[in-house]
Fold these 2 entries.
Entry 1:
Amino acid sequence: MLRYSLKRLLSLIVSLAVASVVIFAVIEVAPGDPASFMLGVNAQEDTLAALRSELGLDQPKIQRYFDWIGGMLTGDFGTSYTYRTPVAQMIADRLWVSLPLALYALTLSTLIAFPAGIYAAARRGKPGDAAVMGATQLGVAIPNFWFAMMLVLIFAINLRWFGAGGFAGWDKGVWPALHSLTLPAIALALPQAAILARVMRSSLLDILGEDFMRTARAKGLSRRQALWRHGVRNALIPVLTILGLQFSFLLAGSIIIEQVFYLPGLGRLVFQAISSRDLIVVESVVMLLVFAVIVVNFLVDLAYALVDPRLRNRT
Amino acid sequence: MSRNLILGGFLSSLVLLAAILSFFWTPYDHATLNIPAKLQPPGVEHWFGTDHFGRDIFSMIMVGARTSIAVALIAVGIGMGLGVPLGLAAAARRGSWLDELIMRGNDLVFAFPSLVIAILITAVFGAGAVNAIIAIGIFNIPVFARVARGAALSLWQREFILAARVAGKGAARISAEHILPNIANLLIVQGTIQFSLGILAEAGLSYVGLGAQPPTPSWGRMLADAQTMVSFAPHLALIPGLAIIVTVLGLNLMGDGLRDWLDPRIRVARA
Amino acid sequence: MSLLEIRNLDLRIHSFEILKSVHLTVRPGEVVAVTGESGSGKSMTALAVMRLLPDTATHTGSIILDDTELLDLSEAEMCRVRGAAVGMVFQEPMTALNPVKTIGDQVMETILVHRAMPPDKAEERAREVLTRVGLPPEKFPLSRYPHELSGGQRQRVVIAMAIALRPKLLIADEPTTALDVTTQAQILDLLKGLVQEYGMGLLIITHDLAVVSDIADKITVMRHGEVVESGPTRQLFAEMRHPYTRMLFEASGHKVNLPPAPAPEPLLSVDNVVRDYPLPRHLFRPQAYHRAVDHVSFALHRGERLGLVGESGCGKSTLTRAILGLEQVQSGKIMLDGEPVFSGAKPNLAVRRKMQVVFQDPFGSFNPRHRVDRLITEPFHLLDAAPQGSERQDRIAEMLSAVGLSPDDAGKYIHEFSGGQRQRIAIARALIIRPELILFDEAVSALDVSVRAQILDLLAELCDAYHLTYLFISHDLSVVRTVTDRVLVMRSGQIVEQGETETVFSDPQHEYTRKLIAAAPVLPEIGKTVA
Amino acid sequence: QTNITIAMQLEPPHLDPTSAAAQAIDSVVYTNIFEGLTRFMGDGSVVPGLAESWEISEDGTQYTFALREGVTFHDGSSMDAEDVKFSLDRALAEDSANAQKALFSGIDTVEVLDPQTVKIMLKEPDGNFLFNMAWGDAVIVAPESIDDIKTNPVGTGAYTFSEWVQGDRIELTRNPNYWGDQPSIENATFKFISDPTAAFAAVMAEDVDVFTGFPAPENLPQFEADPRFQVLVGSTEGETILSTNNKQAPFDDPKVRQAMAHAIDRQAIIDGAMFGYGTPIGTHFAPHNPAYVDLTGQSAFDPEKAKALLAEAGHADGFETTLHLPPPSYARRGGEIIAAQLAEVGIKAEIINVEWAQWLETVFKGKNFGLTIVSHTEPMDIGIYARPDYYFQYDNPEFQSLMEELSKTTDPDGRTALLQDAQRIIADDYVNGFLFQLAAITVAKAGVQGLWENAPTAATDLTGVSWSE
Ligand SMILES: Nc1ncnc2c1ncn2[C@@H]1O[C@H](COP(=O)(O)OP(=O)(O)OP(=O)(O)O)[C@@H](O)[C@H]1O
Ligand SMILES: Nc1ncnc2c1ncn2[C@@H]1O[C@H](COP(=O)(O)OP(=O)(O)OP(=O)(O)O)[C@@H](O)[C@H]1O
Ligand SMILES: [Mg+2]
Ligand SMILES: [Mg+2]
């Protein structure tokens, strides 16, 4: 188990290193000079040069890459070109919106998908199954931003059950904050839940055909007991993979959803930063997202080992 | 043939036909503005109504299908064209440094939140259909590589591959002659799924303004344009949304149906 | 007084009649064996008793267990019967256990699901039954997971689960088919012991007549869903009233007449061959290896039929692959006709065209997308001047006829053939370039006895017609005994004994060979009573 | 009710109005946090600010300002003539980062006469000087607060800065020590909602009380029909123009520019892009300005004439060019319409949507463009046509000398005449496509009073705002 973890950790570090180079390189070729954007249309050339050197933009690229990486490792993400505040602080503030949103959506989609998938698998071929599967087909086909628009139209503008967007802030209490994240979380969660439910169902159906399920029935377990005690945990293995992948989809999807609901999250930050050429922020946020995805996949790998003892003493 | 396949095939060919037909005929010219006639609800004159510039939405949907299909199709082509050979090579040299390299490379691409990178690519190299295709295509490569590798690996364990090796055939030849035809079904099914995901991705990118640029009509941009008008002209958002849903639903149903239909296990049982 | 009585059981799945008025009784303390070829309905009969048939199955008739009509019970009532009154053991020990739960949990589950005793008691009972089946908790703690056990040990866990509540009836569906002979003997002993000790009834299903004769008090022979003959073991073997039973019996002990081997002239020489597989890398340790073939040396003469026996995992297939030049060996030399199979780091194609192989799995050996003509001409790839046009057609026709198929079959796909026919096609593929040497890796293991007998006959005929030289690999001693001149006995990668086949079988020298032969169940001689 | 939430589209990059061009900064801080010697009122008039009164010398080159008594900065220090001198010198300096250096370029020296009096010497008379001193770029700052002025602005205004949640909002609190009348609003929150849909939703859901510069004119009918809201439509200083690269072929030919002017249907653009909000203009001048001349007839919509002119210029088959569009919807939507209108006369304009940063890089600095749409929101900015290096590269010596003369003229009638001449010259030259004056659109809850209807400068003056009961 330890060795398995260490090996995964090593490949995690390599992945992160390669990812950082790729991100840095892409950002480097981006057109648009941050200094001239900051100073506006009437800036003088000497002021610009002064600002560039203040921002460290006149250093050689290699130097800047290592400065960036070194800074990140010590928690210093640099200073935002436009806001002039530490990037780390900005990201931390936004993370308090994006992360709860992703987790909220993940929880919602799991809460919807697991029972739906299990229900459908247990009633394979019956009307209940067909209904759930039909709904999931639809769910998979709906673009989440369109769904978000519809949610706003119905629940915020017409029914006024929810705010149309914006974030209350955690300082106003947990409930108002969650309330303002509810519609976005639903918009993010439902399409994902549809995928998850489908995976859950098909994985469970595979398991239901396994010999050990028959063994379980022969012991006297009812269909239901066999399903819950022996089926679900085994079916969880492929579902975990999807769950891991979904986290990255949720983070990415939140970029668009945050636009629709004007939530001050990482997605909005990245869009704003791209449009204002606040490259250091773009760089750091993208790196953070990649880091989150890689770490989540690492955790998923570890979770496999928890679910599947066969992996525990693997190297 | 299953109900899924028939329904899915029907919906998909409907969209495809609309796209092809749009080259020859649309009820109105999709690009002609008629501002006095803006925001008309669906009716006899304009079946799907008109948009904020008075353009005919039905015509725009037809031409938009063209954009969606072209972007998604080429992106799938990129993914298959590069991913499948990579996957086959990795499987043929299982456990070698090549396999390791290809799979790590795949993991890496997977680790990037695809939308963020697509945004980055289009932000850096400019918004537009070509960059959208590249951005979507890049993320198709590991998908196909993974599917091809996984399926090929299990085939490499089969005795008929061993028999081919005994007959002196090399890895490349075996991959082309034995592996590829046997995983083709899977690739087709995955292809339909990626195709539908490509349509969604294109819509998403266009929605944030990074996909096809005006005046090329695109469903995603139609939605973006409709955003502020849903409350008084819901058809502006409903119709492109439904177009996307119908297309993706059709493709997914078709993918599911194809999977069942092409599954050799079921086919053998039927024979 | 019977424990289980099946009367007039008819079973249909959709429009197929699977079982036709099956009769069968089991008394307490009695071992009843159901035998017959694949697809004869043995498993369906057993599953009907458990009421675990596919949802689409419909049945009529009666299954009475201890005065209860099982067919009348509701699903909930049936759940109370399963595991408590009837236990069941399945064929595949590798997949019959839930991989993510400990063996202790799985054994205890039988007890707990019936609320037969409180958890602490249940655990005690689990230890007890695991000890009884030969897995004392001191050596095999309850916290073990299935993947940490061997096949035989897993089958013991399955049995422990089935007997945890001391059911009156135990059903075992091919409980030893997937196991080595030595393990099979142990499991059969265990089952016999349990029947005696607990006075259970045992309904055992097996296609192996030798196993049947060894264990059963009563035998039921099935064919196409019908019981063709049944009776006490001695009597049934003595009388063999039904021709099918007789056919089965004869096919099981089928002997072929090999033409005499020509004078020894060396063809293949295997000299001190070692094959190591790297074990999964450990991060901070040097690379470790698993030695699958360990300094193996032997010679094979032109026209000789050599056998290779040994238990699962002893390295038989690995050796085959090394001889074929598919994998490089770590040390030693393999020469065919004076040339190495591996020259440098590359397989020697000039040598390879002198060898062909027939594999075990009649289903996996062919690309399902190619037609038979393309399948069997694949080895032409090895030839510099492969036959073309009509010459090619003639060769295909000749080969198909030689293996007992029709030249018209050339245009068919593989799924249109039965297992036996597929194995014939595999032989045709091996023969088509007239190799000097053919390797048979478990080539008949997956076949029914009657089909197996036909294939063995075919081999003998082909020896006559084509003067074959082959290496015949099998774990089935009786088969090796009849189709080989000389035999090698392999254990953990080493050849422990070799010699003339008859000599080795009648007078084994090595202790391991003796153990193998003793463990193999034998058919009674026809007309004589069974001990 | 003494709290108010005011939404706007753009978030300021930082909070120092004296070192950036961003209008968003002034929208938050102007008159609320920072004040200048003079200030704009909602109607565009210039009135005394921190200077209570002033005297102008005969020759118009010396301004002596008498400062108000008892004015303190938010940090408690008092505001005196030294601070004024510091602020102006800072803006004037060689390395000054002030975005509107031109406002100060006429200043020769600043002299402190006593703590309450400051004298400013100009190089030559400047009729615009009091107007210039009212800009947000000319506010008075405290020397000791300069270092972190960008995140912690300290001014003399009626509100003190209290919190900035980046990406979301800025909060201001009433300044109890304000020298003037205490305003009625105690706490003000500025919220930044860039997305037009979100803007609509936020107002509809009553998450915000006021939205200034409301970005989605298509939604205004709904607000007007809803008794919960009021809609204020005024005018801004934003001349929205189809900027044309006067140095790039074929736009270096006035015939071509004239042809384009006739190919454009202004009303269609106003209707299509702005849903009817906006005033057509025929030159680069705000229609609400008394000196405005209506020249729209000179470039009336006439595609046939446009085609004829193109043919005359040797482009009978039209030509291809690029149309760079920055993010605001007037540009994006207007661009689509203009592209379609130009296509009608044979000009194929390839639409290139750009972010502001890219726009600055390629269009504004790189001058690498054919056409672009942008709204020039600085007040009285016709002077840009006198700068040959300005991105549309109009170089007309006649116009340049006219502007020089204007800056020396203080007499109002003379100024008006000159300004009108200037308007005519650029209209005659068809320098750019003159489209419309951007409307100032404010949506507010029905109970909010005292909001500026027009936007003579970027500002959200809270001092006059209150809730009706
Ligand atoms: N789920 C099913 N649906 C339809 N037919 C089935 C199903 N399971 C088995 N059969 C058919 O029922 C018949 C009897 O099958 P059964 O499994 O009882 O044979 P068996 O004697 O146990 O053979 P084997 O030795 O191969 O296990 C076969 O013809 C088989 O094809
Ligand atoms: N590719 C491989 N990598 C690592 N170990 C292997 C590999 N192939 C076989 N082995 C190991 O080598 C040993 C010999 O395997 P082999 O397949 O030759 O056995 P066998 O005698 O043919 O068994 P069976 O009768 O089950 O076919 C086994 O322990 C097996 O686990
Ligand atoms: Mg069976
Ligand atoms: Mg083997």
Note: Chain C is about 35% helix and 25% strand.
Entry 2:
Amino acid sequence: MSAARVGVVTFPGTLDDQDAARAVRLVGAEAVPLWHADHDLKGVDAVFLPGGFSYGDYLRCGAISRFAPLMEELIPAARAGLPVIGTCNGFQILCEAHLLPGALTRNASLHYVCRDQRVRVEQTATAWTGAFEQGQEITLPIKHGEGRYVASDDTLAALESGGHVVFRYLGNPNGSLNDIAGIRNEAGNVVGLMPHPEHAVEDLVGAPSTDGLGIFGSILKNLVNT
Amino acid sequence: MARVIVDVMLKPEILDPQGQAIARALPRLGFSGVSAVRQGKRFEVELEGPADEAALEEVRKMAETLLANTVIEDYSVRVEG
Amino acid sequence: MARVIVDVMLKPEILDPQGQAIARALPRLGFSGVSAVRQGKRFEVELEGPADEAALEEVRKMAETLLANTVIEDYSVRVEG
Amino acid sequence: MSERGEGASRHMTDSVKRASETPDEPMPFAELGMKQDEYDRVKEILGRRPTGSELAIYSVMWSEHCSYKSSKVHLKQFATKAPKSEALLVGMGENAGVVDIGDGWAATFKIESHNHPSYVEPHQGAATGVGGIVRDIMSMGARPIAVMDALRFGAADAVDTRRVLPGVVEGISSYGNCLGLPNIGGEVVFDPCYIGNPLVNALCVGLLRKDQIKLATAPGPGNKVVLFGASTGPDGIGGASVLASATFEDESQAKRPAVQVGDPFMEKLLIECCLELYAADVVVGIQDLGAAGVSCATTELAAKGTGGMDVDLNLVPLRDPTLRPEEILMSESQERMMAVVRPSDIPAFMAICEKWDVPATVIGEVTDSGRLVMTWDGEVIVDIPPGTAADDGPVYERPFHEPAGQVALNADTPDRLERPADLRETLLKLLGSPNLASKEWVTSQYDRYVRSNTVLAQPADAGMLRISEAIEGAEPTTRGIALSTDGNGRYAKLDPYAGAQLALAEAYRNVAVSGAKPLAVTNCLNFGSPEDPEVMWQFAEAVRGLADACRALGVPVTGGNVSFYNQTGSTAIHPTPVVGVLGVIDDVAKRVPTGFVAEGLRVVLLGD
Ligand SMILES: Nc1ncnc2c1ncn2[C@@H]1O[C@H](COP(=O)(O)OP(=O)(O)O)[C@@H](O)[C@H]1O
């Protein structure tokens, strides 16, 4: 069996692309660099939209990136079922691209916050969380200034009743509604979260946990099973 | 050459922590008589040509798709003057 | 109850990286005819009383000391309407 | 805008020809901070009066900031007393020093101040401080891999501290985070002496292969001079408008801002763009544009290369089309670099810049004329031997003597202090004091994880990075580097010689206890006015102390920065040498974390 190929997207200003690629390799998959200006998904099996400050996060985080040529390919592919995950800036881009509902706004504290964050896995029925236990509590780093999840009351109600909240903060760091740290789309192939699984995959560096491996392990499991 | 202004504000039901922080700071700084503050964005868009209806329509599209996130924000477009 | 608007923009000679990034992105997004964009802030200040001269004077002071950083920004105050 | 445009067009260009024809025209050298004898030397060098543009170049290049005219005679000791070090690949005199860290790898690091701008506009001042030091590191051919910041503020509860401190921290955080550089350490110290003169010292460390070092040099006649990055605007050229208007009796030049605004996104693009340019081997020499902008880059590149350069200033891309040549020369616009490129490599160079959305423009050519020649509207406005501006600045042996109260200050020992009655209360008070309390409220605003190479960061005494994965495609190594910055103005005030040594010793220890072997030193010397003999004494003593200590410990100084004039009226800050030490650890897995890591371990006190 050839290794699963996970695309890692680089926009101008993307920062965590090397880290995401390393995490993909750590679980035995192949990391395929995808460039924002190409109309080419290179036939990957899944896509990781890493964090950073794409286009400086000027205007609104993710607002400019969502118009990239690559996104013109990615948006229909995601709608058609391609597994896609966005972390931090990647989550913001997925919301701006309307692949996920709601929006991420300025932290309630008005400060950027970098810390190790306890998070509960609320939903394992997604392409990216199948390797976790339902309700498992994990530690992942967060580092963002605009991570406060907001959505209309209707949207929130639909997220909750549909089981679309994937991660919830234990100790809300940014004022997110319903302590939401991550969500999925209806089909479960698209997931966005503010915490950074790619910074929690090795003992030596990053957060004092390797819980992030679960995300990368999940996609592998998912791809092998299908 | 004309200038078009696009104002973008958070929808009223969305929490505005920046505006709140300012409103809370005001009494401490000796300002009274303010019941609320909301903070939004103002864009000054310089057009190469005149601000005719076609140009304004372009700016409206720009506001709708790029300058504002209509999930959480409202916008308004007007010619300066 | 009246609403006063405070617009805060970077002084013209100060670099506006945000506005520049937007302006540079526009052609790629299919918008043409824009020569420059500048991004600033808009504050909506709700007064408890009427927007008389005394109240406006207060808001001007507020803009000068808190809402704008006059080292790099200009501001203007006006009653909405 | 249009008014200024018309005003500008009324200007007559002060060409070399015109300068020769009007030898007695008074020039505003004093307004630009130049002394009469310095101005006379310029005239002697040129054999005529300088043009406005030439005066702009000499005045910035001969400023204290760029020429180190008051500190040079003392800083020499870092070289003359330097211990033998096989690790030193590039020493003082370049944008940053480079040390060999083994297995074919090299590290480059440097600390620099941005004190005054951070007082005027804390956010932008601190942000552009980070931006500047990162470009220094980039210009050595390295990938910047981490930053640190050493900060000093007035009393924590002072009104002005409430203005300055949040802005500074936000500025460092927003700029550094946006570049994707982990912040792995630094200092935050409060003392009333810094109230009107906060210190913002930023350190950057970069990594490169030993054989990839780039230098600021422009060799090879016919090679092209490329300016790339942000366009040039009226940033930080308050002084230059004096020139433009005073020379030409023209009031039309609006007041120019002294504040520089940073664009971290452009800088991030510049980093990636530069690394790709290096990898493609299309850069012969490179220099960042910091203080003194185009003046500094052109004179230094030319002076260190074949010796000559022709530049057409009309080709410099402008953000404000009304800028005069004098202003272009002095502009401190951020996020710009200058490269020397073989003509045949220009297409490849431009293609890489385009890929990263970085504007790039050929503005000139290397020559063997021994002259830096610049034109504007077809007229020659600068024609100078570049070395006279870059290297042959004035050198001062400033008088110094021990401060009048120094003996009394030292005689006033803690013996006089009342013994605290309640130790518990005293301890709690100490723990709660701003200088000892947790700094997490600062460090939590800095990204310490990005790039996933951070082995140690806050609260460890030294930051540590693994290096094997810091550059794409490099062969694996278990090695890592550790860094610490330290300084104590109160010790240095009591005894600047010992105070500087203590700063080094502390940084050295912090690196050593992480498990790394200290290798090299950088320093930022923050002092009051060198024209005050008592301050100058503090400076001389601190440098002497640091140089002696470096020799004793066997670690060379590879570079640094001097910041003078940190004073309000006649009151100077405490002399504050901030010292950074870089060390190497053979196996990062063997790092020693700070704190009691497990129960039951013995606690041993070492030293006395
Ligand atoms: N305190 C210092 N210790 C050691 N070297 C110093 C010190 N201050 C300046 N230098 C060195 O002097 C040289 C000139 O300074 P430089 O960094 O080029 O100035 P700038 O960056 O402001 O143009 C550099 O090599 C620098 O490392």
Note: The pocket of adenosine-5'-diphosphate is lined by residues D 66, 68, 75, 78, 92-94, 290-291, 523, 525, 557, 559-562 (CB under 6 Å).
